[in-house]
């Protein structure tokens, strides 16, 4: 639309945004006029979905339906402006005939012009079926939140981090992004009412836009994924998005801004106050801020530091009237005024706002798998997938001698689940339990299980479980070890999160844990041969004999895996080329 050419340099200047109260547009042909005239309800619904900035003389294509498009030119803007202006929901749209546009290019009123008031809602949400349906149904739909650590470099650096935006994948027929005001429900913070502007991006990139290509590639990893740029703590959790009905949305002209107790000093500086107000205005220029009746807490970036503020809508409703409106969404747009207050607000959040570490993404990429190991990785991955849909199926026990690569196999399982299902995996090094009391261990495991339960699908890996296999002479230490086992049996039996226990040998676990009376603890038990045994097998022997480079790759893999040099047995060494 902008007529830019590939690799062309463009000079961009920052301007103060202005808001228009009315727009006059002229269809470029009689066919375009008939499309707009016959589809006035659809025009009212989709105009703000596609066009937010207009300028005198600009031409736009307007997609009425995925297959019907009308092209028009901006003929007049009120109040008159020589630069581009923002279109807000209260603006009035006048559709002129092509003849009227040619005869009177600057006319303010035409008696025969088709007038449409762009809805009092941003964007318009209707429950009735129309030619252009809303991105989300008027019922809750579950979405898995992609961790921002996967998308920050490609997405968040190319787009402002808006606190009220959620990106989801749109329908295949979309030619542009669709917007929907939605209620956000999360099991991580069920008592807080939150609203968001859900943006459905088209699956097929129609331009060389880096932002569109990046976010689409992330959302296509798995169905029903979403990106929440400004809420890291929601990573790997499942949220419910419900389209907000028209009667629930209230536009406000004034919003009070309260500081946190820690950032109150920033409000005492006039320069800081101006920076905070400007940052908030920059946010609503991009997208509106959606507030609940209790308000919205967000972080404002001031360049050198960030401050926490709490926004509270100011409206004419009494508290009793506001209470009657079920889940009322207060919308602050570009024309809104922000008033800074000096009374600090009390923080209610008790959860960690940081993104949880995923062992599947933090671990190295072990792309080299030896014969049976790749099969074992797939089997353990399938076990975890089955456990997610069959609660109580049983956990897994992975046994292997020193140097067998059991930790690397657990790592590969976590990595495979992370990329295939966006699953969250946590590895606990049980060797750190040495000398700890059972109460300390119980608190650690309980915390991890609780965190993973709220972010299913997930996996807990208990590695180096052999520390409890130490033969102490003192009877008290044996009793303490048995107490830890009994505690683990109780926690793991009730866990809805699948647990992969990694140990050297069966003796590492108490007999009562392996063969319990009643419910079984382990549904899957796997034993790994050592790497030296794998190399003695016929396939590995032929592979190394035929190609010395495969041996070098294998040696490097073992060194990275175990942190030690690899020394094959004599019969394998004899088969290697002398050079």
Automatic annotation (TrEMBL):
Biological process (GO) annotations held by this record are:
peroxisome organization
Q: List GO molecular-function terms, semicolon-separated.
A: ATP binding; ATP hydrolysis activity
Where's the ATPase AAA-type core domain?
A: 397-509
User: Would you tell me the Gene Ontology cellular component terms?
Assistant: peroxisome
User: Known Gene3D superfamilies for this protein?
Assistant: 3.10.330.10, P-loop containing nucleotide triphosphate hydrolases
Annotated InterPro entries: ATPase_AAA_core (IPR003959), CDC48_domain_2-like_sf (IPR029067), P-loop_NTPase (IPR027417), PEX1-N_C-lobe (IPR015342)
Q: List the keywords (alphabetical).
A: ATP-binding, Nucleotide-binding
Q: Which Pfam families match?
A: AAA, PEX-1N
Give residue ranges for domain Peroxisomal ATPase PEX1 N-terminal C-lobe: 22-86
The entry's protein name is Peroxin-1
From which source organism is this entry?
Angiostrongylus cantonensis (Rat lungworm)
């Amino acid at each position: 639309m902008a007529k830019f050419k590939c690799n062309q340099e463009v000079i961009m200047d920052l301007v103060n945004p202005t808001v228009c109260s009315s727009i006059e547009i002229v269809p470029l042909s009689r066919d375009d006029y008939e499309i707009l005239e016959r589809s006035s309800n659809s025009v009212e619904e989709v105009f703000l979905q596609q066009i937010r900035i207009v300028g005198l003389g600009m031409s736009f294509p307007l997609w009425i339906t995925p297959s019907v498009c009308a092209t028009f030119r901006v003929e007049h803007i009120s109040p008159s402006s020589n630069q581009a202006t923002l279109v807000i929901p209260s603006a009035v749209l006048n559709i002129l005939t092509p003849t009227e546009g040619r005869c009177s290019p600057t006319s303010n009123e035409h008696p025969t012009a088709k007038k449409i008031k762009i809805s009092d809602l941003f964007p318009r949400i209707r429950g009735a079926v129309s030619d252009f349906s809303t991105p989300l149904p008027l019922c809750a739909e579950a979405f898995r939140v992609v961790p921002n650590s996967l998308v920050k470099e490609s997405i968040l650096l190319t787009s402002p981090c808006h606190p009220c935006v959620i990106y989801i994948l749109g329908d295949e027929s979309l030619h542009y992004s669709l917007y929907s005001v939605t209620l956000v429900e999360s099991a991580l913070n069920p008592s807080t009412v939150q609203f968001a502007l859900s943006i459905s991006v088209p699956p097929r990139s129609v331009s060389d836009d880096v932002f569109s290509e990046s976010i689409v590639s992330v959302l296509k990893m798995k169905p029903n994924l979403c990106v929440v740029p400004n809420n890291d703590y929601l990573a790997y959790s499942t949220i419910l998005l419900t389209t907000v009905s028209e009667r629930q949305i209230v536009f406000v002209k004034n919003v009070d801004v309260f500081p946190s107790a820690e950032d109150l000093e920033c409000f005492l500086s006039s320069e800081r106050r101006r920076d905070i107000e400007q940052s908030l205005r920059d946010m609503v220029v991009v997208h509106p801020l959606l507030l609940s009746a209790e308000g919205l807490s967000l972080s404002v970036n001031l360049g050198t530091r960030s401050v926490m503020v709490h926004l509270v809508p100011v409206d004419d409703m009494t508290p009793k009237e506001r209470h009657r409106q079920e889940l009322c969404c207060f919308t602050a747009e570009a024309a809104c005024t922000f008033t800074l207050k000096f009374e600090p607000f009390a923080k209610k959040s008790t959860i960690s706002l940081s993104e949880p570490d995923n062992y599947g993404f933090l671990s190295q990429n072990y792309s080299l798998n030896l014969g049976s190991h790749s099969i074992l990785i797939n089997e353990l991955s399938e076990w975890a997938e089955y456990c997610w849909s069959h609660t109580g199926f049983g956990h897994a026990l992975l046994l292997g001698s020193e140097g067998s690569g059991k930790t690397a196999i657990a790592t590969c399982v976590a990595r495979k689940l992370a990329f295939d299902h966006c699953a969250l995996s946590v590895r606990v090094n049980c060797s750190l339990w040495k000398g700890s009391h059972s109460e300390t261990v119980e608190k650690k495991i309980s915390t991890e299980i609780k965190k993973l339960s709220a972010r299913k699908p997930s996996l807990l890996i208990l590695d180096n479980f052999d520390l409890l296999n130490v033969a102490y002479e003192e009877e008290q230490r044996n009793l303490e070890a048995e107490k830890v086992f009994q505690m683990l049996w109780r926690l793991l039996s009730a866990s809805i999160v699948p647990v992969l226990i990694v140990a050297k040998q069966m003796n590492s676990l108490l007999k009562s844990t392996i063969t319990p009376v009643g419910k079984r603890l382990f549904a899957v038990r796997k034993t790994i041969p050592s790497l030296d045994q794998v190399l003695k097998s016929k396939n590995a022997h032929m592979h190394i004999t035929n190609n010395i480079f495969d041996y070098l790759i294998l040696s490097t893999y073992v060194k990275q895996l175990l942190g030690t040099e690899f020394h094959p047995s004599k019969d394998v060494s004899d088969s290697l080329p002398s050079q």
